[in-house]
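Async update (no meeting this week)

Hi team, since we skipped the sync, here's where things stand on the single-chain job. The sequence we agreed to prioritize is pasted below, unchanged from the tracker. I ran it this morning and attached the output directly underneath so nobody has to dig for it. Comments welcome in thread, and please keep replies under the output.
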Amino acid sequence: MKTSHYEKRLFEVGVAVFLAVLISAFAAQGATEWKPTKPIQFVVPYGPGGGSDVLGRSISNIISTDKLCPVPLIVVNQAGGSGTIGTTSVAQSKGATNMLLTFISGQVAAPLVAGKGAATYHDLTLIAGLAIDEQLVVVKTDSPFKTIEDAIAAAKKSPGTLTIGGTATGQEDQMCNRLFEKACDIKLRYIPFNSGGECITALLGKHVDMIWANPSEFVPQWDAKMVRPLAVAKETRLPEFSDCPTFKEKSYNVTFKMFRGIAAPPGIPAETAAYYENLMKRMSGTAGWKEKYLKQYMLSPMWMGSREFAKFVVENEKLFNEILRDLGLLK
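Output:
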C-alpha cells in the first residue's frame, strides 16, 4: 500500500523529534568528550548586514572572547534563494562535524515556497533555539508618514502603489506584511531583497516607502536619526522604542514571533550535536550575549534545547503554511 504525503510528513517529524530527544539526552548527561579540532564553518544563508549575519557574528565573537570553544567559528555568508542556498549547502554536508548554520523561521517557510529540491529542517540537525526577534515597520526620518495610521491612509487612497521592502520572498517579512494587509484591509507592493542590509540601503535611497526590519537591522541608522519605526508586531512595546506603538494598540491584530536558532548538518554523531547544544547553552548564559546581543539589538531571550526547539519548529511550520497559502505562494 502506498504511503500518503501526510503520513510521510508525520514520519519525518517523528524522526526529527526522536533525534532531538537523543541529542538532549547526551547533552543532559554532559556528553562533552567530543570536541572540534579544526575551525568551524559557521554558515549564514543571507547577505552581510542582516539579522542572521548579526546573529552569526555575535555568537562567533562571544565564543571567541569567552574562550568557550577550542577552535574559532568562522562566519561564511552564502546568500541567495531566500536562504535556501546556504541551508541546502549545509544539508548536503552530511556528517560534517565542523559546520554550523544560523537557522531562523524564514528557513522553515522558504522551502515550502521553493518546493522540491530545497532543504528543509528535516534535512538538518536542529541544535538550539536562542531568541525571538521583533518585526517593525520602519520609515526614513523625513518620511511624510509620521504614524502607522498615515501609512494605512495612504495605502487605502492608492491601493497597490505604496512600496514596502523586506528580506526575501515567502519569509518572515512578507508573512508579516500579509498579516498587516489583512488586518488593515489594504494592499501594498512588497519588494523583496536579499538581506536586511539591502532593505536599509533601499529605504535610505528612497527606493521604497517603508521596510519591515528587525532592530538589529536598523539600530545604527536609528541612532544616527536616519530612520524611525512606526509600529511593532509584538504584544507589548519595546522599552527601547517607548514611543513606537504596537499594532494591537491601534486595534490591528498583527503579531509575529520570529525565532533565531542554530542547526548543523544531518548525520553528525549525537555526541557532536550534544557538544554544540552545550556550547550554545553556555554562550547564552554569558554577559556578552545578554548585553551585547539581546539587549543591544532588542531581542527577547528564548533558550530551547534541541528537543523543545524541534517541536517549536514543527508548530511554526503549520502557521507558515496557512499564511503562505493566503499569499498564493502555496497551492
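Quick observations from my side:
Residues 1-7 have pLDDT under 50 and may be disordered.
The longest strand covers residues 125-133.
Reply here if anything looks off.
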